[in-house]
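input
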Amino acid sequence: MIVMGIETSCDETSVSLVKDGKTVLSNAVLSQIDIHKEYGGVVPEIASREHVKGITLVFDQAMKQAKIDYSAIDLVAVTAGPGLIGSLLIGVNAAKVIAMNYQLPLIGVQHITGHIYANHIEHDMKFPLLALVVSGGHTELVLMREHFDFVKLGETQDDAVGEAYDKIARIFGLAYPGGPQVDKLAQSGKDTMNFPRPMIDSHDYNFSFSGLKSHVINQYHNQRQRQETISIENYCRSFQEAVTDVVVKKTEIAKNEYRVKQVIVAGGVAANKGLRAKMQATITDVPVYFPALQYCTDNAAMIAVAGYFKYQKRPVSDLMDLNGSSRLELV
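output
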């Protein structure tokens, strides 16, 4: 079964062809990073216009890479949310055109389920499993007992991990996107700042990073006002150690409570070297999997994989009813 995946939830325009929920035949991605870098973050109106400009090109690239014709496609899967509504609508409407023109079934995919299923490309899922979702907009612990059976154990109460990284990076004057820059500098720094570990000892699986972010920013500004010598590398390392201590400990506790067979990490922050190292060093009794780097950030291959498995469990979407949603729960 060949699934076409379409992803336009934020600032990547992507189309992919995936066979049997596993074999990636193509994964074309058109990034807008260089365009939004000038503004220090994604500008929704610009993102929407860039999707319109680039989506037909990305369709062509994906089909050429896969070396197949549209007649070989069995299902169209598209990100329906959450995300920037203007961006989402470009992908949803393009998916409807393809599905209608070639008389194909269409299924809407929740973006975070796509990130979770990115792991399946290289590692088969074994249930029950625990998924740690860490991205610019999400920080969640999700229990899965089978395909498309999601139980959210906890989530961030304020800032997501990736959001906190980007805001810290902006204060430090680092280039956009800031998260990878913080991770890179942290590799040569030392944990000298003794930053707090928010909610690390709470008796639940929720997270909070707004207070930590404010603490780091205030301490940085105070040192600058006192004209003290500042090591950005040490700030980055200290911040990263605080964040990863929290998410790894909560993941480990949940892993033990629910006796899962594997732990998977999903989302853009899954590419973080510090998180990867600490997670694999801490959890050693069950496999810990991360997606390949090209599948950590937004891409259509993960949407195609998730669409393949959702198709086995859920009814297809109605062409008229399917729409983009800026807020969409795990389904």
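quick obs: The first helix runs from residue 33 to 36.
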